[in-house]
Amino acid sequence: MVKKHELPLPSEEDIALLHKSPTTFEDDNVHKIYDEIANHFSSTRYKPWPIISRFLQSIEKHAMGLDAGCGNGKYLPLAEHLFGLDRSVNLLKHAQRAGDADKQVVLADTLHSVTRRHIFVGILQLQHSHLTYRQDYAISIATIHHLATEKRRVESVQSLLNSVCLNGGRILVYVWALEQGEDSRRAVPENSTTSSNSKGLDVWVPWVNKADGRVYNRYYHLFERGELRCITEEASVQSKVKIQVVQEGYEKDNWYIELRTHGSI
Amino acid sequence: MCRIEIREQEFNADFIRAFFPKLDYGVLKSTLESLGDDSLKLDSVEDIDGQPEDFLRLLHKVLLEMDVTQGEMTCGNCQHKYQINEGIPNMLLGADEI
Known about the structure:
The complex is a heterodimer.
Chain A: E1 5-6, H1 12-20, H2 22-43, H3 50-57, E2 65-68, E3 82-86, H4 89-95, E4 105-107, H5 123-127, E5 137-141, H6 150-163, E6 167-176, E7 186-187, E8 201-208, E9 215-222, H7 227-239, E10 241-251, E11 254-264
Parallel strand pairs in A: 1-7, 2-3, 2-5, 3-4, 5-6
Antiparallel strand pairs in A: 6-11, 8-9, 10-11
Chain B: E1 3-6, H1 13-19, H2 25-34, H3 53-65, E2 66-74, E3 81-85, E4 88-89
Antiparallel strand pairs in B: 1-2, 2-3, 3-4
């Protein structure tokens, strides 16, 4: 039996701050933390998860892809033309040399960058030409559970839908589950109730940093069963991109969904 | 200040041919020129399959091997300047710019 650590819940004041300014809240409780813990965090993130490896192995030759929320870039070496995007510059410094090879990365927001494709001209055309065009595929791994509101989580999926080809573009999204398996070291507080108008649960996930011994509480929105499907369908309606669900399921305490675009609605 | 580094990558003619139709060749050419590089001589390319290997190798070099490690990009629409530091373009916008 694995020793469980119960995850702390945000206070009412925390939630008030979250709603007052989701972007400031994410800056303080996600981005700044990853920049602080990047070295230690990166040293613990090297093992690819099976569903994601299989997805990347199934990508067609010469296809180009975006890893939106690439972190330390552990998936970048698994596909030939996959480039990384993240909010943490310190994690990107690791991603740049993922797999001991030169990788193309960009510091950007998963919500805006890809929908602002038109601005990616000039030098970026040279360096990241792929950014100016629709990708063949995109992955979002353990990323959108750091976004503070449902609206922003939907927008981030819209952004993925807009970043790939309108027909046959492939997307894989992977998020942390509220339903933690028996081997998980984390436990969701038993008496926690989610508010009636939203699904899932907002929690703090502590990180004990090796360098300074400090505990950093990262913000996570844990997804409950069916929630990921629900926000992808909403994103499809909002972005007017028709989607087909290729597969969905649960793997290692996470929910995942694989989509294929199918023209516009 | 602008700094460019060349990082060798394995040449793959098929990839360049497959990628080329997605490219805006004119923008690529003018971008290179803005960096003081006039190695792309053709004004436009109608048929990539009809191009000699030398040309594909040139494209390979400017697309995959040339890395702007320090510099800035100016948005063609709004003139916003985006910095590139240590090979990482910073596309983040301030809260007032979104």
